[in-house]
Structure formats: C-alpha cells, structure tokens
Amino acid sequence: MSEQNRLGVFKTYKLYVGGKFPRSESGRVYEVTDSKGQWLANAPQSSRKDARDAVVAARKAFGGWSGATAYNRGQVLYRVAEMLEGRKEQFVREVAASEGLSKSKAAAVVDAAIDRWVWYAGWTDKIGQISGGANPVAGPYLNLSTPEPTGVVAVLAPQKSSFLGLVSVIAPVIATGNTAVVIASADAPLPALSLGEVLATSDLPGGVVNILSGATAELAAPLAAHQDVNAIDLTGAGAELAKELEIAAADNLKRVLRPLAAEADGSDASTDWPAAPGTHRLTAFLETKTVWHPTGALGASGSSY
Fold first, then answer.
1. What is the distance, to the nearest Å, from the Cα of residue 298 to the centroid of all Cα atoms in its chain?
2. N or C: more exposed end of the chain, with fewer CB within 10 A?
3. Which secondary-structure segment (H or E) carries 256?
4. Is 71 exposed, middle or buried (0-12, 13-18, 19+ CB in 10 A)?
C-alpha cells in the first residue's frame, strides 16, 4: 500500500498505575490541544477511584523499593535516562507541541530532562552522607542518625513545564526510596503519559511511580485527604488550591512541600527548571531515624568504642 493511501495509527494515551496501562475507571477522556488550540490527542480523565487505586499500588511497591540498596535505585534511575535517550525524538515532538516550543528549544528541554535523571541517579547513594551522621553526646553512648524515605508521596506536577519540570519533581521522590502518585499537567499531560511507557521498560518496579491525568483539583483533593498518603508536593497547585490541600493534609500530619515563590500561582512560568536543582527536593521527603548505642570498655586500658 502506498504511503498516500495508508491510514495513520493514532496513539491511545493511558494512565500508568501499578506498572500497567489502564484506561480511566470513569471511561472519561478530554481533548488535549497545542498552543494554537489544535487537537493533539484524547487523554484519560482520571477519577477519584483512579487516584485511590494509584495509592494502593504505590503502598504495595513501597516496601520493596525503599528496601532496595541506594546503589540499585541509582542504577534504575540511570536506566530511565538511557531509555529516554533512545526515544528522544518522540519526546521532542510531544514537548514542542505541548509547550509551543520550537524543535530546537524542545530538544534542549528533553536533553535537560535526561540529564536530570542522571543527576538524581548519582545522588541516591550520597544523600545519606549529608543528611545523616554520628552525633556528639555527653555520656557512655553514641547515636547515629540516618535518613529514611517518608512513604507514599502525592506529586502535583508543574502545569507549564510538562516534561523537565515533571522529571524534576518525580526523580528526587523516588531517588530517596519513596513511591509516587503523580498528577500530570492538566493542559499538557502527553509527555507525562509517555514517560510512563519509558518507566515501564526501565527496570522500575510497578507501582513506584503512578501517573494520572485530568483535572488537578479533582484528583488532588482525595490524595491530600487520603490516610495512606504520607506526603504531598504542591508544586502544580495554585495558591488557593494549595491552601485547601495543606489543610486537608494536616489530618494525618502529611509532610507538605509548598510551592516556591515563583510557583505560587501554579503557572511555574518563572521557575528556572533548567538550573541545577540542589538537594532540597531530595531531603523534603526523608525522615531521620536516630539509633542510640551504649559504649563499652575494651580491655585493661579502659579505652572504649
């Protein structure tokens, strides 16, 4: 059949939950358009039930992922970068269409996102050294403080930076051993949904990252109030929504990462996502465990350990 007579195969975008690709439980979809209002695809419009299913998947995956060695987690994150490198052309197209960028600018964004995975892959076995350590105490004992993951983290991805911003909020959460339920950008969810396909082929255990698309406020409300969600990142929430979610999150004392000043209106348009991210997102969802241990004498000299 000639190319002129061939019917193109349109991509069906699906959620990424528990390592699988379900349609929304509600059966709803919504139109995704480019910066000029032209139709790009239909994205699944997630429901509260989808959000609850994602939390169940994230909780189930938490034990294995948090118990993995930091070195192993770093290898998995690096594998994500490898897989993205091989699918760069696809993501350049999707980012360009979603964010209204030229092909060259979209390519720079995708390159930065790949580099961001490598950045956080390198931090997995080092963050413990700067956020933990031995503590000086006055007494016949010593204590050691070590960081541990908080648990299941709900992540509201940036609304404007549909890929680099998305990676910048997901990678540090899972690098430190947490699992994530991610609400993609409402207007530009396609790069996030395609990222799920990459994660599924990158040795990342199912359920470690779960990606939902749809109305941010509709999905964020049940996650903020969910008793099995341990923390929430409000980056993609506007000021009014962020306040409501923070109040709901207080019910079970969730950790809350508030938007930066540049992100406070939910637009994140002025956020410098390409800049070096630092470690504040790595430490935002870590708990500190302190273990006390008595010292004892070693031999006749009276020296102790």
1. 48
2. N
3. strand 255-257
4. exposed
Residue 59 to residue 203: CA distance in whole angstroms? 18
Could you tell me if 159 and 186 are in contact, meaning their C-beta atoms sit under 8 angstroms apart?
yes
Task: Determine the 3-state secondary structure of 69 from DSSP.
Answer: coil
Query: Could you tell me which residues are beta bridge partners of residue 304?
Result: 297
What tens digit of pLDDT does each residue of 63-100 get? 999 999 999 999 999 999 999 999 999 999 999 999 99
Structure tokens at 110: 């995708």
The tokens for 147 are: 């960081």
What amino acid is encoded at 248 in this protein? A
pLDDT tens per residue, range 109-134: 999 999 999 999 999 999 988 887 77
Identify the pLDDT of residue 271: 63
- Closest among 278, 286, 284 to 145, alpha carbons compared: 286
Tokens linked to 66: 């948090």
| pTM of the shown model | 0.89
Question: Rounded distance, CA 40 to CA 17, Å?
Answer: 23
Res 139 pLDDT > 60: yes
Name, in order, each residue with C-beta under 8 angstroms of 106's C-beta and a sequence gap of 6 or more. Answer: 92, 93, 95, 96, 99
CB 15 within 8 A of CB 45: no
Residue 260: DSSP 8-state: P
Please name the residues in contact with 37: beta carbons below 8 A apart, sequence gap of 6 or more.
none
Question: Under a CB-based contact definition with an 8 Å cutoff, are residues 156 and 216 in contact?
Answer: yes
Question: What does DSSP say about strands 179-183 and 152-156: parallel, antiparallel, or unpaired?
Answer: parallel
